[in-house]
């Protein structure tokens, strides 16, 4: 995550959040998620600005954890607000299962963000057709996830596991 001139503010390796001096932030270690269990992630972390506060940003992790980073904490080097991580930003929706697909698209209002996830909570033996999970990040925080059917058929194997979730530049196509 960088400022408007491209200067680094923080980054994540999927396990922790680091400040611009390449040090792990206090409370920056991610626990109790798929990422921490050494699960592979292709799109496991999103970095988004806080629509309600230019001095804050969000680190969203695929397993449902998130952190709010205050850029002014620790003498301006940044720090995580409150408890280390807040759980289940997608609640009361379903857990995000197995696809490793997460993306964000700027809302038409130019301020908020749509958070998109491919949800597939089946197993290799009983795959389910993937669905689209949609949440909104606005000045009040992350709104609960809603599901949308994608019109895809269930498969005999997890053929939706590979690849990534991409959105067109204008946000009109997934």
Short recap of the structure:
The protein is mainly β. It has one helix at 73-76; strands at 10-12, 16-19, 24-29, 45-49, 56-61, 66-70, 79-80, 102-106, 113-119, 131-138, 141-142, 146-149. The two termini are 24 Å apart.
Q: How would you characterize this protein structure?
A:
- With 174 residues, the protein is mostly beta strands.
- 2% of the residues lie in helices and 33% in strands.
- The chain has 1 helix and 12 strands; from the N terminus they run E-E-E-E-E-E-H-E-E-E-E-E-E.
- The strands form 3 sheets. Strands 8, 9, 10, 11 and 12 form a 5-stranded antiparallel sheet that branches. A 4-stranded antiparallel sheet has the order 4-5-6-7, with no helix packed on it.
- The relative contact order is 0.15.
Kindly list the characteristics that best describe this protein.
5-stranded antiparallel sheet, mainly beta, 12 strands, globular, 174 residues, 1 helix, 4-stranded antiparallel sheet
- Helix tally equals 1
Strand content: 25-35%
Distance between the termini: 24 Å
Shape estimate: globular
Which sequence of SSEs, written as H and E, runs from N to C? Answer: EEEEEEHEEEEEE
> What does the average pLDDT come to?
77
Biggest sheet record: 5 strands, antiparallel
What are the segments in which pLDDT stays under 50 over at least 5 consecutive residues?
32-39
Class of secondary structure makeup: mainly beta
Secondary structure tally: strands: 12
Helix content: under 10%
| Rg on CA atoms, Å | 16 Å
